[in-house]
Amino acid sequence: MEWICALLRDRETDSRAALRHYWRQVSDAAVTYGPLFFELSGHAMQGRAHAVSLRESLIQPWLEPLELIFQRRGSDGAQAAVQARISLAVARGLLLDLLLSGDRAGVDAAMGHLIDTELGAR
């Protein structure tokens, strides 16, 4: 996560290209580690002792870099926060879709559409 945060803080970086690259890395890793991620997320939701700390690390830290992207593109703070949360939710849903359906092309197309729709042309 530190890599994407640093990359996105750089004002010269094309946010869309950075997100597409990051999506590829995350979705490739999800094929191996995704089932564990979702299982432990379920444990955190249930308040299981070994996973309680995940409640603090699975959502909030991911929102900041996404909010920054939307703010850089002109959204005010409140709007950027909403856009960030929606984008994170969609990305996680697409990872779950990939794990269940195996439809890499469909999932990648959906993520590409999200990036293009939310970020538009620079």
Summarize the structure in words.
The chain is built from 6 helices and no strands. With 122 residues, it is mainly alpha-helical. The chain has one domain (16-119). 16% of the residues are buried. The mean pLDDT is 89.
Q: Quick gist of this model?
A:
The protein has 122 residues and is mainly alpha-helical.
Percent strand equals under 5%
What helical percentage do the residues reach? over 70%
Shape: globular
Poorly predicted sequence stretches spanning 5 or more consecutive residues: none
Work out the radius of gyration: 15 Å
What number is the mean pLDDT? Answer: 89
Count the E strands.
Answer: 0
Descriptors:
single chain, 122 residues, mainly alpha, 6 helices, 0% strand, globular, TetR family transcriptional regulator
Q: Which helices and strands, and how do they pair?
A:
Blueprint: H1 2-9, H2 15-45, H3 54-57, H4 60-72, H5 77-101, H6 104-119
